[in-house]
Design brief:
globular; 4-stranded antiparallel beta sheet; about 20% strand; single chain; Chorismate synthase, AroC fold; alpha+beta
Length: about 400
């Protein structure tokens, strides 16, 4: 199973092409719309979210509400394109007023602007920033929603929560349960399980707003109900933990990823790090009383919850810009300002859910195969019997 996305932030639309879904999966278009809506929420978001009302139009691969087994094409229109038609036109445009061209020649520190301009030999950095923008993740969330629908058929659920914003709290919790995450209200401004901590996070974001600054944060994605045996130790690029880390690192602004205990595992002795193994004779299954491994050992899921954390840096666009250089004149200048958020930590968690769901759906397809969902389920049930007989 694989997918590609296309489209620019202020272009006509975003597109995703997905290949490898089994035939017979029921597709809930309203669920996809809700997932896209979740990505747009969160305290600290900018004005763009009030313009867009994202919905995914399915162009192929689904008939009468079910997947066909053929490639699925998705399209998400950019409503803001109406305000950018000349700037983002396909054909050349001549502008009497250069300001209307909205060319970007003052790269923002921390963004792809300068590195991309150097790589692709363009002096209008809009050519870079339009595709580098996190607007692209709307397409990924739509694909992730399809992946979630597939995972649900096998009892797997994926969710997220925010642990820290801009250094608040100083010591994020490490023991947040699945039940606590599930109990977060849908209208929660930051998807934090603790309302008091959430209020402190909001105050931190408001401080950044007043200062013309931005803040990052820490989110955790949890996959519940994952069976043992997804991923493999046999090749470096098929290890499940490596694939999860790459998937989260691919999210714009994420600078570090942890699985389970993460970097703390380097500090503690092995006797405190590794999860002891127990056996339940009634349910005929192995289990752990701790989950410091984060649900993956040796590149393979071990049957516990998969827990992966993403560290989001502060966004690169500041209302009080940092120092930069004009790429045309080579003179010192303030970095360009593009409409942006103060923080996108809540959205980052939702995007993280999508990426984790996609990786798990890929691993599930690799493990159980099948051209149809029915065939895939037969293989899955046979594997469940194998596990109980082990």
């Amino acid at each position: 199973m694989r997918f590609l996305t296309a489209g620019e932030s202020h272009g006509r639309a975003l597109v995703a092409l997905v290949e490898g879904f089994p035939a017979g999966l029921s597709v809930d278009v309203e669920f996809i719309a809700r997932e896209l809506g979740r990505r747009q929420r969160g305290f600290g978001r900018g004005a763009r979210q009030r313009i867009e009302r994202d919905r995914a139009e399915i162009l192929s691969g689904v008939r009468h509400g079910r997947t066909l087994g053929s490639p699925i094409a998705l399209l998400i229109e950019n409503r803001d394109f109406a305000n950018w038609q000349d700037v983002m036109a396909l054909e050349p445009r001549a502008f009497e007023d250069e300001r209307r061209a909205r060319r970007v020649v003052r790269p923002r520190p921390g963004h792809a602007d300068l590195a991309g301009g150097l790589k692709y030999n363009t002096h209008d950095l809009r050519d870079i920033l339009e595709r580098a923008s996190a607007r692209e993740t709307a397409a990924r969330v739509a694909v992730g929603a399809l992946a979630k629908l597939l995972l649900r058929e096998f009892g797997i659920e994926v969710s997220s929560h925010v642990l820290m914003v801009g250094g608040v709290p100083e010591h994020p919790r490490e023991d947040v349960s699945w039940e606590e995450i599930q109990a977060i209200p849908e209208d929660s401004p930051l998807r934090c399980v603790d309302p008091e901590v959430e209020a402190q996070m909001i105050a931190r974001i408001e401080d950044a707003m007043r200062a013309g600054d931005t803040v990052g944060g820490l989110f955790e994605v949890v996959a519940h109900g994952v069976p043992p045996g997804l991923g493999t130790h046999t090749q470096w690029d098929l290890r499940l933990d490596g694939r999860l880390a790459q998937a989260l690192m691919s999210i714009q602004g994420v600078k570090a990823v942890e699985l389970g205990l993460g970097v703390m595992a380097a500090r503690w002795p092995g006797s405190r790090v590794h999860d002891e193994i127990f056996y339940d004779a009634v349910e005929r299954r192995f289990y752990r009383k701790t989950n410091r491994a984060g649900g993956v050992e040796g590149g393979i899921s071990n049957g516990e919850e998969i827990r992966v954390r993403g560290y989001l840096k502060p966004l690169s666009t500041l209302r009080r810009p940092l120092r930069s250089v004009n790429v045309l004149t080579k003179e010192p200048a303030e970095a360009a300002f593009e409409r942006s958020d103060v923080t996108a930590i809540t959205a980052a968690g939702v995007i993280g859910e999508a990426m984790v769901a996609i990786v798990l759906a890929q691993a599930l397809r690799e493990k159980f195969g099948g051209d149809s969902l029915e065939e895939m389920k037969r293989q899955f049930l046979a594997y469940q019997e194998q596990l109980r007989a082990y």
